[in-house]
Amino acid sequence: MAEEKSCVKCLGLCGFSRGGDLSVVDVKDGRIIRIRPLHYDWKYAPEEIPLWEFKARGKTFRPLMKELNPPFRLIYKNVVFSPTRVKYPLKRVDWDPDGDRNPQNRGKSKFVRITWEEAINIIVKEMKRIIEKYGPCAIAIDSEGHGQTKFFHGGCHGVPAYLMKHIGGFTWITRNPDSWEGWWWGAKHVWGQEPDGWVKTPNILHDIVENTEVILCWGCDYETTNWGWGDQGWSRFGYWLSELGIKQIFICPDLNYAAAVHADKWIPIKPNTDAALQLAIAYVWITEGTYDKEFVETHCVGFEKFRDYVLGKEDGIPKTPKWAEEITGVPARIIKALARLWARKRTSIFHMSGGPYIRGPYATEPARLEVLLLAMQGVGKPGVHQFFFLSMFYSHIPVIFPMPLRTNRDYNSYFTTQAIWAGKPEVADELFDKEIKQFIPKTLLPDAILRPPISWYSHVYIPCVTECQFKKYTYPAPGCPEIRMIWKTNNCTLTCWNGGYEFAEAYRSPKIEFILAQSPWLENDCLFADIILPVTTPLEEEDYGATVVYHTQYANAFHSEKCIDPVGESKSDFEICCLIAEKLGPEIGIPDLLQKFTEGKASLKEWAMEMWDETGLSLLISLDEIKEKGYYILPLSPSWNDLKMYPPGLRKFYENPEENPLRTPSGKIEFYSERLAKNFPDDRERPPLPHFIPYGETWQESLLHEKAKRYPFLLVSNHPRWRMHAQLDHAIWLREIPTCKVKGPDGYYYEPVWINPVDAKKLGIKAGDIVKIFNDRGTVLCGAFVTERIMPGVVSVDHGARVDIISVEDRIDRGGAINLITPHEGGKNTAIMVVSGFLVGVEKVDIEELKRKYPEAFEKKYHPLVGPCYETYVLNG
Amino acid sequence: MKVFVIDLRYCNGCYNCQISCKDEHVGNDWTPYAKPQPEVGHFWCKVEYIERGTFPKVKVAYIPKLCNHCDNPPCIPACDMKAIYKRDDGLVLIDPIKCNGCKKCISACPYGVIYFNETLNIAQKCTGCAHLVDGKGPSDLKVPRCVDACPTEALKFYEEEEAKDLISKAEVLNPEYNTKPRVYYIGLPKRFITGSVYDPEDDECIEDALVTLTDMKTGEKITTRTDIFGDFWFENLKINHPYSVKIEKDGYSAIEIYNIVTEKDVNLGDIKMYKART
């Protein structure tokens, strides 16, 4: 008999146990028929759905009565049945744990299928050996911040850490504030705003729609970055802002996807020169007397030093619009017009998370300077804010905060959650020092493996507070061993972090005896593993969960049925850890390890009951009811739009800075940071007063540096339009979209590089040509996308394409994974990551010549639409 | 009778329509409505991507295109097998059983929205998700997938009666084909003329200059004023049509630019305006 069912699924791709928008998966006879947006009124009467709305300037904005799924949900069939799926446990063919490990062949040699029993036996034997020989901290846990939404199945978010806790510890590869480096390492020193460095109070939008006249979308693409997290509500909201008559000015090197449809004005700027533009704006305000002098006097410290620097008294160079024109490519007259408009109209700045604007060399500087400019216009006054799309969506607040504390299986968000529940940001740091015996910032992993000992400042970990940036840490930590095994549920480092070829080299170190990867897809870092275990997707798992209101119209709770049987022999990350715990425990003298890991709970429902109780969800909807209905829309807090209870942005500080101090040493906005001066008196890379720093000791990625003679283009790298970081690069229906991939003359789908027609002509490049993007750090191949949407002299490649390395030794890649050639170095006193705003050369490629030089690489088996796939890497696959 | 109304002013280019169409039809057999669509290569709903203007005055237009479900469909008489038919609700379908793969409909359709399935040897196209409209899908899904998936309500599916006001403001693609499409568009891109005016001596943008656009054929005039960046835009102009632009500002010598032909969108670039010498 035909069995038909419709299952609720959260297919958000940011994980963090915070969910995302909901979809409905229609299933018939074990087949997925379709994936579509959930309609709120499917199981509830319209009056049961809480209504929120914005009213401003005689217009009203309301949610639609369905989830606004981005395309990333609707292509999920592609993802589940991808030719890249890991179907079975795999072992690298020339890795013999009892003999030669051939670490030098990681990323090169192929894999063979083994049984689950063989895989678990090998893993347990290796872990036992390593724990007994070196101690548990020789095992490093590498997890990701962004992955499929999974509450009780772990996903890529570090569920093995919860197992290792019971074994006596591990080395934690911490996730740096990768999407907002500049705010975290820079802006926090100016205005606190722990832990991220940007303002996140819920009610800013109420004030903006009422009072703001101009919005500066500075390096911001709200039609793209949010697709991973949640819905497309910001798109609707963006159209509404225009209907209200609020002007949107986009300042970025590329006409990004939000600018393409929402911009009233595009001001193109050379990548990573924003600091010069900001200083020139300040110059106009200071010389024309158009900044808020009273606010600066009463709410800020150190302005005089800044004024002197801007006027040229410090270095003899007045930061005039003409000075900035040369650097930024923005005509002086446009800079003046922008400065005057900003001074004349109530202006707010919008960001998604910051993107390339605060992910370049010296990113601390534009981040800090932006805060100073906001201060000069009285930030917190009506209509004057910094607003982050990444904070609460639409400002509305649910009646409870449904993020679990104890039942969390996402180690990456564990510290964040603890701090949020405690209401004190310091809690994350305290807990970190208590729990973590040894850690390595992800940005420094290659240095730790290849060049120990190393030291750095801070936990380099998102939820941690500014004070930790003055604490020094070392690897190896006192009493801890070097790492010998890496257990990866994160497999995107090569294509998403700083200088992927450095990571490739580190993975090949003989010091690393064992790399274990768990993943649904055979791609990126998996290719450097010794054992790969196949992981299920959410469609193959039953789960319970809840969504905090990040980028969704409503917070929700859900139960999602298992839709289909696991593909191949895949299992969830949690199941895998259970298998390992069961066998490993008795071997290392912890016979009840499995019991400890599962807390004695025998079923998913027992876990869900605990989550429901601890979050308060059980007061709203029982487990039985959620199981029957599949979803539940959380009611709004009665005070969701109470501006007195939740004043917008920095309003309280604006109104009374003495009673509402910022979390800085002075309690005020610090143009000059005495704390930085005291702790790092000689730091010219993040000086106490923010500067425009074109190049310096660490980075020389500037057109003003002589290196630009060899590499004359500045590259900007956005959060990708058609991927969530490294996720979904293999989705066939996305790859058919003309801005997603460029089909080369050889039939291979190349990652596009945006290049202006002026530059293309000069270089003899036509649309669709295969080109190489290169610098001292290596080469990646791309497909030319010739477009008016990019500035001359600038090229753009999104990060996150799947690596398809032609030669690790020669550092050449066909996949277009641009982060392979980003700078690797962190700052002098920061372990900051630089992944945009760097120098490259661009040339047309003779692909036939490459084929002759690297015949083996080009003879790989490729899927005609997807490129590298399971068969590419598995013997007899 | 059903109609699609597509308001391009709210199309953000997410391609949900194109993708959800594939999700519905690839691998799913909706016979007698349609047989499965090939995994790739068919675009029963296809988003056209258009870059408009030149650096730095650039905009992007997206136009979702599907079968127009014409009231005067050239594909129907072209089919020898009488496999193509128009339903009472206006949707035009190709019967996948009767179709013999002769491809005559593909040549007959001036919009190029019929695709050929090599494996099944049949012509295929948008069905308006008639199977869903007829209630053969989930109880809460009675509209075409592209419409259900659209996050901004740019794509809507109506009873013609309900949409009368919208239709009166809308256009169809290539009305000159005379096929009477049932897919209506609001905000179809026309042409724009833009420029930026500045004073090269003071190196300042010129704000509030009066810009007059003249239709060189009719003599009709439209005016606008430059903004703080010296920018002016004239939108929704005729395609491939001659215009002239006059720019005036107190204290400056006026500028006139003739014979601007809107074959494409026109960016006049940075226009220098000099102070009048007395």
What do these coordinates show?
The complex is a heterodimer of chains A (about 900) and B (about 280). With about 900 residues, chain A is α/β, with parallel strands linked by helices. Helices cover about 30% and strands about 15% of the residues of chain A. The radius of gyration of chain A is 26 Å and the shape is globular. With about 280 residues, chain B is mainly beta. Helices cover about 10% and strands about 35% of the residues of chain B. The radius of gyration of chain B is 24 Å and the shape is elongated. At the A-B interface, strand 3, helix 8, helix 9, strand 12 and helix 14 of A face helix 1, strand 2, strand 3, helix 5 and strand 11 of B.
Quickly list its features.
heterodimer, A: 877 residues, alpha/beta, Rossmann fold, Dimethylsulfoxide Reductase, domain 2, Barwin-like endoglucanases, 3 domains, eight-stranded mixed sheet, 31 helices, 35 strands, B: 278 residues, mainly beta, Alpha-Beta Plaits, Immunoglobulin-like, 2 domains, four-stranded mixed sheet, four-stranded antiparallel sheet, 6 helices, elongated
